[in-house]
Here is the input.
Amino acid sequence: MPTTRATAHRAALLTLTFLLALSGAAPAAAADPPAPRDDIYRALKVDDVPAAYVVLVDVSSSMQDRGPDGVPLYTTVKRRLADFLDSLTPADQVAVVTFGRATGVVHPMSPANRTDGLFTRELPQSAKESASDHGAALDAAADQLDHSAAPVGAVLMLTDGAVNAPGSPYARPGSTAWQRLKSRYAALGADRKIMGYGLPLAEGTGVSDVLGNAFGAPRILPVDPTALGSQLSAAKDQVRAQKAVSLLRADQGGTVTVSVAGEGVRGAGGEHVTVGTGDRTGVRSRTLRVTLESKARHVPLTVRLTTTGSAGGPRSTPAGPTAPVTLRPGEKKTVPMTLTWRQEPRFSLVPGSRDFQARVGLRAEVSSAWTTTVRGSLGESTFSTGEPVVTALDLRGTVPGRPPGWLYPLVLLVLLLGSALVWHVHRRRNPELSGFLVVTDLRTGNRRTIPLHGREVTQETDAGQVRARVTVRGRQEAGRPVLVVRCERDAPRAGGERLRDTGTCELGKSTVLCGIGFSHATENEAVVLQ
Here is the structure.
């Protein structure tokens, strides 16, 4: 028979173990090693995601100047642009806009693998324009982006000079036309990522300020015409990273659901799960089924299950295998959880059933091997697989209400101590009587004595013509012993009522009750009262 404790209504959870070695549930490492970026790209099928590129080519006459390698800048642009377009995926889209004094869309937005005639028929054979209207080129680029539904867009501006657009609404930075252009790009980027890249081919182009008037934070590459090919590749790599990010945003937070099933379980899919424990007492055990389901569309997840006790309630200690559970996107796995606890009788003065309650928090920590790479090399610093999912397991049942074994001896002891205290108080309030009570008839002077003994004396007495019934007991008043005398005598006249009176008689003094004198005396006439 288990020993009942006053706090036995709170469960003492002994162990909470997770048996995660399921068929097909491969154990994961203690920490998620970062996944290589190329592996993430392959898993996401990034090359199937379209990106819309708009290439802005400066065709002012200064583009015929030779670069550090002795090749005209315009020739270098066409060569490197051809290599760049060949490296794009069939899903990508490209538009090419030339700008000088006039702006022209030489290649409207179309799939990147349909640019065969760009360099033979569409682009000018040489750069001959006498001005450079960068603003009009950016406006034309916005028109082309409007024709694409790609989740990522990039505007690449290749120029060797500053804004030189007399008569254009974009001739002066900060003009109304520039303000409208900036608002237009902000609207384009409301539901997708639009990036601006500046590829200056000479010093002093001011391309950073130009693109800054349209984009919040353009990316400006170093001035190096000979490295134009690698710079275009770098821009493409950043766009590719944004393709991946556009897919991963769907998996931001809220990526795992937890449900609990098993014997006695109610509310299996909610944040609070009730587990009926019945009315048996002692060490109890129950195996539950915990189902973890990934809601991620792309990201593989790792789930680590831990437990916590509620504040002020029972504490639990995880034991046994603690291997994490790995989930592919959309995958569902069920793992057994063995719960062991002690269900003891509750303290009760009256036998009967009492409620049993205990709570354990089942915590699912969600992580991914992709997180470090996405936050680092992909630049999505806010990426997260979501907050931990906590499910409250409420154990509810009944236990017998029993008085503890020490209760009845304690009650008996209290009764004995109480009786002793009452007897002690009674003795102090009613001390032992000794000596004599002298009863005097005040008319005749006749006397009678009543021997005093014990704690109370009652006696019929007569003194001369007086007949009375006298009751005497002792009492302490202000630390002094006195006699409490109650007198009941016959009526002085026939037919009258009997006289009754009560009073005290201090030792060494006398008192009169019912017309009778009372005093205390000892054999040697000393007044003593123990």
Remarks:
- The chain has three domains: 12-33+253-402, 38-250, 436-521.
- The domain at 12-33+253-402 is CATH 2.60.40.2310 (Immunoglobulin-like).
- The longest strand covers residues 352-367.
- The radius of gyration is 52 Å.
